[in-house]
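1st attempt posting a full record on here, be nice pls
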Amino acid sequence: MNTGPRSDAFVFFGATGDLAYKKIFPALQSMIQRGHLTEPVIGVAKSGWNVDQLKQRIHASLEEHGGVDEDAFARLSGLLRYVDGDYRDSATFEALRHELGSAQRPIHYLAIPPSMFPVVIEHLGQSGCADNGRVIVEKPFGRDLASAESLNQTLHTVFDESSVFRIDHFLGKETVQNLFVFRFANTFLEPIWNRHYVQSVQITMAEDFGVKGRGAFYEEAGAIRDVVQNHLMQVVGFLAMEPPAATYHEAIRDELAKVFRQVRPLRPADLVRGQFRGYRDEQGVAPDSTVETFAALRLEVDSWRWEGVPFLIRTGKCLPVSATEVTVQLRRPPLSRLTAGGGNHFRLRLDPDLDIALSVRVKKPGDAMTGEPTELSLVSQPHGDDMSAYERLLGDAMSGDTTLFARQDGVEAAWAIVDPVLGDATPVEEYEPGSWGPPNATRLAAKAGGWIAPRGGA
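the predicted structure (as tokens):
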């Protein structure tokens, strides 16, 4: 755990925006409810508002996203300040410096379009608002390797790497952190968690809905940029990493970066891109769009532990089920009549709930000595987490704990994996809504025995 002095003010740019409305305001209320936030909260935006109008928007946000705790809202209102101004105007940052008052270690959350990062970073440095401060950057961390490197250079003109918190809410989920604990807190796993016993690792992140009116955003992102390079690569990292040194606060992020550097850059043959039928009719989508709403890919990890074991990833919109699930398929034992139909696997559901199960084979009733599969439920937590990902991550950032945040070298190494296949390196293939993507995706998993559907998505 890398911690330092706690931040003594929370500044968020984009205070009147969508992210603040949906995620930041509910997280701040929850932090106050738990006694985790007593510092000044300063919103910055250019909307022609005043602090009372911002309070009204916060109240509306809480009504819509989880409910209003009037006592916590009153305390939040007492901490709240507001600066209205253009991010390009130095006067805005002079006003922010005034509102910071005696605060010496502010943390600045850039909940704004990435195109504005350089402008805000420069003004924070020139105004002195960044002195002894920290910065939270919302994903995406660039659009490709070159832009990620450029973004990091911009951040480092004002902030040291130890003061940069690249927030990916996926890492704040209780279920994703449970994946890490399951991997390393169970002695029985280590002897078999390698190429000698594992046939394949499959990760599916499926959504049974489309782009929900966000066609213009998706045209700029696509499935690979939206979730593969960040969310799903982090899952690969937790599954493939070596045990971190418990006494070193950067150990987890060191091991994640090491895994990403061991993954071979993707080739076009390793990728199938798809687009659900009807996507081009969405508002904001080009009529000839080649943006993928589905991606399936095969990764190879060049390490002693994982040489020859394919890591198979697929993600997409308009699939049969909404779920994020990992399946670690074990090699079959040699007695084929006992294992006809498949071997053992671990199934780890990360979303919408936590569910960990082990598939085993038991004797099928009757005279024949044959086996049949059954699943043993190891963990089932259907109600999820009482602490939101944003609440956890904002609290960690204010405390200076970098563990659950992406580090520069890890971000750039992950981009290096997908960089060769971004854009139109492979054709986009149409698929029917409600299917598991283009039929061509089946070839990527053929040698591993085929794709395994998440529970409820067969």
